[in-house]
Amino acid sequence: MGIKATIIGAGSVGSTIAFMMAVKDIASEVVLIDVNTKKAMGEALDIRQGTPLCAPITVYAGSYVDAADSDVVIITSGVARKAGQARLALAQTNTDIIKSIAPKITKYAPNAYYIIVSNPVDIMTYVFHKVTDIPKSHIIGTGTLLDTARLCSRLAEFLNVSQKNVHAYALGEHGDSMFVPWSLAQVCNTPLADYRKNLDFGIIELPELNYDEIEEYIRTSGGKIISRKGATYYAVSIAVCHIIECLFSSVNTVMAVSTMLEGEYGIDDVCLSIPTFVGHGGVKGRVLPDLTDEELERLHNSANVLKEVISGLEI
What we know:
The chain is α/β, with parallel strands linked by helices. It is built from 9 helices and 12 strands. A hairpin with a 2-residue loop joins strand 8 and strand 9. The two termini are 36 Å apart.
């Protein structure tokens, strides 16, 4: 694709996104910006030296002026979550970082799509809305797209099918109040509740699914990875690249990403994830499947958790 992308933050996430964009032929030009210019230059050089074996791409470290005419900007800057730390604990520190970055980047890339990755991502997406004039349709937080991928991956493991045969969402906050609307989940076009009755794998006996256990697995996956290797960056980088591919596709794709709600399910003035149409032009609309009373209550709880944090921030 002939896309110019700017990535703000050349840490593990930002540099992995740049690497994946080169490998997957998603962009023709990638600019890495970081306060640690030496680190950004090293990451760009490391990726660039492998590009003769990929599709043609230019990868370099730069400053905000180099972001001019970017088609997409990915913001990964911020203090990383430590083992055992909740994402929401980072809120004010990373809010201040977003507030510092926003005017510098939007000055040079006013027409770009903005993908927010920094945690807590729903709060940072909200803050970016409030401190910029970028259209709502052009601001997307990665939200529960990663949680949804973890969910589908886990269900595919249990059910011994391709991940592409599993259709389910994790919704709400990308954090502790995230939940799975199990009433919507399907596998091989079969409601998940009926999978043992309708899926016949011959000698393979399908397990009983413990929904609470699966949700807890999804909710704690990030923390477990951080405790084992120090950071999470592969899966979220795949998620970011997926969003970019959909933004420049000729068809809309439905995904669970964090956007500003304006009355959907009776919720407004907060960013969280519900099924959202993403395509050329950015956020094109929402899918509003019927939720059970319990699921709707959990979605509102997620919104209230985020609003409580927002109320205590200096934006």
